[in-house]
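Look over what follows to help learners.
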Amino acid sequence: MSASIEKLLRDARIELILNKIEKEPAIINQIIDLLKSESRSIKFNAIYVLGHLRERAEKAVPKLKECLGDNDWSICREAARTLGAIGPASENVIPSLIDLIDDREEQIRKVVVEALGNIASAKHETVVNLIRALNDDSQQVREEAVKSLGKIGSEAYEAVPALINLLHDPYWEVRTASAKAISEIGRNTEKAIPDLINALSDNDWRVRHKVMDTLVEIGEKSVPALLEALESENKIVRKAATEALGDLKTQNEEVLKKLESLLNDKKEAVRGIAAYSLRNVGEKAVPFLLNQLDQVSNKNKRIILSALGGIGQEAQNAIEPVKKYTLISIRSKKDNISDKIGRFFETLILYLRDVILGEKKLRAEAVRTLGKIGQNSEKAILALQEALNDPRFEVRREAALALGNLGEKGELATPALLKALEDKKPEVRWRASEALGNIGKMDPKIISNLEKLIHDECDYVCETAINSIDKLETS
């Protein structure tokens, strides 16, 4: 036996030993022999090294089993941890581990239930004793027992009722782990649905999110209970149930109608999640979003428009309804005094409406949406081109950005973008020059107009113009 390995173990030179093992695997046998050492440090570190070797330390299982009875509790704990790390090859040691599940040392109990999960044996005695550990006084032991049952999976189905009870545990870590384990076990999880729905009102967001994930993993069987939860007076429950339905992406018409109705919910957070959920459904949700577009406030219109934009080109049937929100009524220019006065008051009214009703933000959102859903529509491109004339620079900027995102499909709007290079607002000039580079049409006229911006008063406009010229000249 090499004295150097013994010394390295005594000095806890773990990394050095592991490196030696990679070069000379036979050293593992020496380390196993040292499990009988009278030195506490050598024995402990030998166990620790074997834990790092995981399944490669399979030959050590019998001697590690003996270490479970060591008078030193830390040796016992480390042996249990290493047996768990070795995994299924430690299955024969399960009875000895179970004997320690009631040990007075909390850390031994914790490591033992964790090891049982890592061994992942579906033996009845393992499951029964892990269920028993769910009542341990220690939060850490309960949490590890829950996780271990989840690792065992469907064969731990008899643990579901006990896991449901733990959804009310005082500690969020245990509640969260319980929801996850229920979904991992899989079999008969529909029995847990009522308790999972109740857990949607948990005060801790981490628990709620794990519960939602679990309901989604259960699938369509969760839908009736989630629909019922939408009627809750608790906004947190309504919001969570709405999000879960969106993540399920169900095409169920009853669900879509209910989500549509929530676009008018009294709570803004619920309205936003309802739009998000319909967006997740995709094309089939478009009519339900459009049903409410003309009915809700401007603020809610923006939420719906954003959802339609999120659906993308599958929502191209919404182009006409969306397009009208990009338009404003401005009288054409005339020379007589009365028309000038009329235009002044009309512009003033438009400004006040933008301030009070947020119509500026609505037009900007409609423009963004058109850019996302109208990539193959000439009507959409023409509407975006028209939006470059909007009296509010925020809308003009978004129109230029949307046209740039269309790439070469936005070529139709090139004349309007060239005009936008002269806009008094640098944000518009910036996005217009960027758009011309993205469209990629090589034209001397475009180059010459972009060159005028190289010395713009705003650095980012200059830089973008230079980048666009480089794109066009190298394309």
Q: What stands out?
A: The CA atoms of residues 176 and 207 lie 5 Å apart. The radius of gyration is 33 Å. The chain has 29 helices and no strands.
